[in-house]
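for the writeup, i need someone to sanity check this before i put it in the appendix. the sequnce is what the collaborator sent (i think, or maybe the updated version? ugh). structure was predicted straight from it, no edits. if anything looks off just tell me and ill rerun, i have time this weekend
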Amino acid sequence: MDPLLPREGNVFMDSPVVSIPQSLDLCRSATAKENVATARIDELSIWRSKIRFDKEQQESAIHWLQTLGFKAAEKQIFQLSGGEQQRVALARLLNSKRKIWLLDEPVSQLDDQAAFECLAVAKSEAKKRNATVLCVLHQEKIAQALADRVFHWDEKWRLS
């Protein structure tokens, strides 16, 4: 590891964050499209958000689902496999307008090719939006291929 890189300290964020936790935090009774559209719920009035998402928000949700290779926008989350749910969570993140993205194993249930393709889309979008991305992955080859910087933790939870 480069001795000039910081090894400890604090991080302060002055911008809203969007994240994909390991639990995905999807609404199981809602459709894939509805889950993705929630990324932009802050654009609606409180009353409007209780009724439904507008056409543009629904189209944006479908766009990101299809971009990630997901075709079943009207299926409810509880009907989807773990990998499909991860695509929905990533589409929700991409549908957000936030500039700081925290991803915790967002593609662990996808095969390596699908994982690479989904994260390549995310990287491309992050660059277009000038977003900061912190992503935890166990797929080292994918991390090496896509990341600008890779950190490893050793068995004692130290950076190496």
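The beta strands are 17-20, 100-104, 132-136. The chain is about 40% helix and 10% strand.
thx in advance!!
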